[in-house]
Amino acid sequence: MPEAADGALLAVRDLHAWYGESHVLHGAGFEVRQGEVVTLLGRNGAGKTTTLKSIMGMVGRRAGEIRFDGRDLVGLPSNRIARLGVAFCPEERGIFASLSVGENLLLPPQVREGGLGVAEIFELFPNLRERLSSQGTKLSGGEQQMLAIGRILRTGARLLLLDEPTEGLAPVIVQQIGAIIAKLKSRGFTILLVEQNFRFAATVADRHYVMEHGRVVDMIANDELQANVDKLHDYLGV
Amino acid sequence: MSEIFGIPTQALFGQLLIGLINGSFYALLSLGLAVIFGMLNIINFTHGAQYMMGAFCAYFLLNKLGLGYWWALLLAPVIVGATGIVIERLMLARLYQLDHLYGLLLTFGLALVIQGLFRNEFGSSGLPYNIPKALEGGRNLGFMFLPNYRAWVVVASLVVCLATWFVIEKTRLGAYLRAATENPALVQAFGINVPRMITLTYGFGVGLAALAGVMAAPIYQVNPLMGADLIIVVFAVVVIGGMGSIMGSIVTGFALGVIEGLTKVFYPEASNTVIFIIMAIVLLVRPQGLFGQR
What we know:
The complex is a heterodimer.
Chain A: E1 8-19, E2 22-33, E3 37-42, H1 48-56, E4 61-68, E5 71-72, H2 78-83, E6 86-89, H3 101-106, H4 118-124, H5 126-130, H6 141-153, E7 159-163, H7 171-186, E8 190-195, H8 198-204, E9 207-212, E10 215-221, H9 229-236
Parallel strand pairs in A: 3-8, 3-9, 6-7, 7-8
Antiparallel strand pairs in A: 1-2, 1-4, 4-5, 9-10
Chain B: E1 3-4, E2 7-8, H1 9-40, H2 47-65, H3 69-90, H4 100-122, E3 138-140, E4 145-147, H5 148-170, H6 172-182, H7 184-189, H8 194-220, H9 226-241, H10 246-266, H11 274-285
Antiparallel strand pairs in B: 1-2, 3-4
Helix pairs in contact in B: 1-5, 1-8, 1-9, 1-10, 2-3, 2-4, 2-8, 2-9, 3-8, 5-6, 9-10, 9-11
């Protein structure tokens, strides 16, 4: 096992997770280095979302090791994990219907210095500025996704966990989200991304981990992706 | 002019005032129930017993410690709220994953136990609690006599209700509460200690019940069963207003108190049942309640 001291901000080893009785992760392991964008690829049910939720402390039971910035997250409740600088953007976006767009945006508390200011968030997502007093769920799907990403940028979190941010969105919006991920990377954010769409993943990520049956079965650097397209098709069943 | 619709104005306004007083208690109690239901998903049947505990707390503060009404107004909600926090931590916290029914059964059982203990100790004849000196007497408004204490109860209840509404609907803390009502797991993943927020919410809702109990003590006396009678009506109010709606419970509480009062004037035979008749109609026409969503 490689040592985490080589710059890995997040090191996951032999991670097991359970929802009630069902054992979903069976010893997943991978690393994300400071400033990287890394994707988890895999079919439905491979355990990608569960991996993100396990890092965030949102599954019933976890075992193994999740080391973030030197601290083990297994055993911490999710509010403590958030306070260490990890932020989660769920697949279903989690926009609150009883809150306005502005309230949604300002909801996550700041956990440390260095987050984006509200003005910078509006620069990234100009649509949100005009809709501040609308009900959160009245936004279009793309705008909701932008709100869901925008609101975790304020908090000062350094590791962003994004669960399928492009799912169900029009190609032009997907492109915008790709550009935003690139901007966030250039600002020093570390991003762990779950994707079904590996063509999108290839435009933003440095490395890809492939998951199957609750384990990480392969790692492909982005510049080797073309050489491995056939293998990936097999993995993903495209 | 001394008659309206053939009813003496004295009687009309007198019943209207009684309606507003009852409405004040309906509103305070159903507001607490709505806040608790929103956050905990638990229908707090102990609420009536906790209202009674508020009144008893005022009685003890006066007779054991010599602390009067104004101290009781401050301390009783804190003390009874703290007992609520213990109940939440020790018992309710184990039920959140289960069906509503379990919380309802537990809190109903607790209410019976608490009321039984108080009744065993103090009988059911009621203990006196005097109106505070500063609020004795009343004023003649020309068309009716308005006792100061009753005016105070209506105004104080309205202020507390509106302040609670403001905090929940218009502040950052309220945004956390509303968001946690929808999706507690995600709010916790943003770094908020949701379990603690739930505990404090229950303590606050119980504190509101105790506050109502203190305000009721000089009007209804201090009686172990004072909450048991009231809480049934309050649940009807909550059903009519819509479970979990904050403004709904306030408006419905006052409105039904007034409707009940007016029924006493125009058709006294129905005054005890009018709220339940309205409840039945609302359930048939709009099952989610007048202010409820979905």
